[in-house]
Specification:
The complex is a heterodimer of chains A (392) and B (439). Chain A is mostly helical. Chain A has 18 helices and no strands. In chain A, helix 10 runs antiparallel to helix 11 (234-246) and helix 13 (266-278) crosses helix 18. Chain B has 439 residues and is mainly alpha-helical. In chain B, helix 1 (7-48) crosses helix 8 (187-205), helix 6 (145-164) crosses helix 7 (167-179) and helix 9 runs parallel beside helix 16 (391-408). Chain B is globular. The chains are: A mainly alpha (392), B mainly alpha (439). The interface between A and B is large, with 50 and 51 residues.
Amino acid sequence: MNQPAPDLPTTGAPTDAEVWLVHREVVLLLMLVAAAAAGFLVTRSAASVDRSIRLADARQWHARGLAARDADSLEVAVTSLRRAVTMDRDNSRYVLDLADALWAANRPQEARELLSSLRVREPDDAEINLRLARLEAVGSDLDAAVRFYQAAIAALWPESEGERRRAIRFELVELLLARQHRSRALSELILLAADSPEDESSQVRLGQLMLQAGDAARASAIFTRVLEAAPRNAAALSGAGEAAFALADYALALRYLSAAPGDVGADLRSTAAAVLSRDPLQPRLGAAERRRRITAVLTDVVGAADSCLAGRVPPDDAATAAVRQRRDEAVRTPWLTAGPRRPAVPADRDDLEDALVLAARLADGLAEAGCPSGALQRALPLIAKRHELALQ
Amino acid sequence: MRPLLSRERLRLREHQLFIALSVIIGVLAGLSAVLFSLAIDLVSRGLFGLDPSWMRLLVTPALVSVLTGVLLVRVFPGVRGSGVPQTKTAFHLAQGHIPTRVPVGKFLLGVLCIGSGHSMGREGPSVQIGAGIASAAGRWLRLSPQRLRELIPIGAAGALSAAFNTPVAAVIFALEEIIGDLNATLLGSTVVASVAAVVVERSILGNEPLFHTPPYHLVHPAELVGYAVLGVIGGLVSLAFCRSLLALRGAFLRLPSRTRMLQPAIGGIAIGLILLVAPQARSVGYEYVDQALNGGLGLRLMVALCVWKLAATVVSYASGNAGGIFAPSLYIGAMAGGAVGIIARQLSPFPTAEPGAYALVGMGTLFAGIIRAPLTSVLMIFEITQDYQILVPLMVANLLSFIISRRFQPTPVYNALLEQDGIRLPSSASRLEPPAAAT
């Protein structure tokens, strides 16, 4: 390897000098190895010092970023937090705070990219998935949002963070309900019900969401359970009333809603009361009472139509024209032309049903035409439905 | 006489020792590159602090340059600039001889110049330091001139491998740029050194890529048009960089020789003024490259940084400071690419990738246009980002940039810099043969 080596003959035994030279080179190489080892130790120490300085700098930038964010200086916050992230890439906290700042600064795309990169490294991290879910939730990709929410929920949470996990599932349910995905929301709610704590507020919220998702029976059971423990709980009374109303148990609905304090569920209460007090087909009524009720119903609904039509100037739109036509039809019925006490007016069930359907259709028409809607108008379709009468 | 140690075995042993030496040089070059990078960070942090005031930005480069000017003239002549041209000279013209004080001076002055805010890169000096260590070790072992010469690309590859964490690109760079022959017989030793260096670097700093990017890919086939436009723009920016660098350096060289000690300080004053306007142009600036790659910079800022970084690098280099142009070319390319990416996204009728993808390709484009090593540039970007998806756009843009740059600036920038110093490297055909003095 040293200078004489290239000139060595290719065969034969080497001289002592040649062998010595090779041995010398081995010794020198070993000395170089020792130098490399020493250099390695020095460099590693320097790297350690550099790293500790970097981490300290990153902490300072992070603190500055948070302070700027709290002071609403979002661009300064983004710049500072970005520097913190550059200096300490392994710190997920910094990346999450930067993503929050970017989002607050109305730069959701950058926040999304940042979080997506972080998620590649830590796919099961709850905080990353939750932020991505929220970003997607305000965007248009509901499936992605649900996927990230579910990943956040499925993440390994410490025992003490169980409440957080439930809160995220509540958040997911509210998103699904807001986007009209009731069956998916209901699936999540059923999981939530199995995991939900027994405190009143959680149960009431669960019941309310069950109601929104369209499962009045489960909601009713939840509210009933809450009321057994806390009979005066206003939210539970109101929820139980709503659930009973949705299950068409208007008597029970009225009972709960009447017990609820103040104006809670006032509309529902008046509607339920109207359903119960003005239904001409209700069992165990005498013929006279049925006649009285149907005449009063028709009179009131025609009166409501007259009030509404009085303020409208021809030409009528389609909805108003339909109201006018149904109103005229109602006025021509024997119930209104003859009056309730005239014995000539027939009172068999078919006639009552026909009249009820006419009144309900007129009430429907009033709602479609944008007329003010009272308890009776709201109650009539429910009464028709209660007796399985088709309005179309 | 020893019958068990024949001459054949002795020759075999010599070959084994050379491989062992390659490993050791790779380790030493890698350590020097890591230490160089750490020292720059520490000096920069010490000089500027966490958040430097405008006064520090203005004054620090000039004051430090007064010191470096004295050292450059009185103590370490020959360590100005990048180090790559000097390494090529050592390989092609000096039989692999690099005086020991060169790597020492390059380390010291590189740390001072780059750490004090000059807009220069650490990779070029690392190459010269690595080659200098290899040369010193070879002379200590009393290697033949031919063997000594062969150690130069080995040391250079080791240093570059550790500086960029890019073992493959470092090997290709040594073959493509230092030796000038991709079929060189030194491939084995160069690979060994490169691997040894990167193992050392990763064992100290960890296996993190130099830049962190999201996975980018070609969104639409027609997007290649956008990358082609980036290639053209990259070629033109490369041309502007090379021409302005050579022109300003030529002007500095024409100044009376007694001003040579002051020239780095003149550069320092100019850098201080530039840093007042664009503090992001300070030193290596990879932090901002990273932001561009991750879509964190706006259009106006990226255009401004492209211009200011180009100006700052030209001034720093031309005024005789010690530092390279690899990192600035990546920086300028990232800014130019990011700006093109934002414009493409706004104007393109078809979907386009994130601006960060264009910034990534822009880095390679400027590297191919300025350094004029197209294969190295593709591999380097791939290894730096560890992102394979962007390879096709990268090759398209790099090729266009390379063609434009070569068409309008036939002499590569490193060779042109050497010619300004009165050094003319042998043509590529004659490079394949070792110099006559070595035989």
